[in-house]
Amino acid sequence: MPSFYDQLQSRRAARKSTLGEVARLIGMAPSNLTTALSGKHDVRASTLEAIGAALDAEWVLVPREHLLAVRRLIEGKDSGPDREAKTSVEMFLEQAS
């Protein structure tokens, strides 16, 4: 699974947000944001919360017993049943008619 900082970078790229835009939204100098996103320095939780909010995302604490399920969900491998798919009964009735 990608690191937290890699996930922040991916989220920023997915939203097509520049570092300058995110920095402006959270009131931080772009150079300080670059340092924060590098993952090489400790960053305050409030800063991470602000970055997450600017990227329309949140960071959460996941209990270890649920970590695998959360990872699978994030990777799109465990998204649940396809509610739009036809049931076997519906497919049978279509074939019968």
List keywords for this structure.
97 residues, mainly alpha, 434 Repressor (Amino-terminal Domain), 60% helix, elongated
Shape, per Cα inertia axes: elongated
How many structurally independent domains? 1
> What is the CA-atom radius of gyration, in angstroms?
20 Å
- N- to C-terminal separation? 48 Å
**Strand content range:** under 5%
**Structural class per helix/strand content?**
mainly alpha
- The CATH superfamily is known as lambda repressor-like DNA-binding domains
User: Topology as H/E string?
Assistant: HHHHHH
List how many beta strands DSSP finds.
0
Secondary structure tally, helices? 6
Uncertain stretches: none
Q: Indicate the percent of residues in helices.
A: 55-70%
The major β-sheet equals:
none
| CATH architecture group name | Orthogonal Bundle
CATH topology label: 434 Repressor (Amino-terminal Domain)
Mean pLDDT: 85
* CATH class value: Mainly Alpha
Organism: Cupriavidus basilensis
Protein name: Helix-turn-helix domain-containing protein
Biased composition (Basic and acidic residues): 78-87
Pfam families: HTH_31
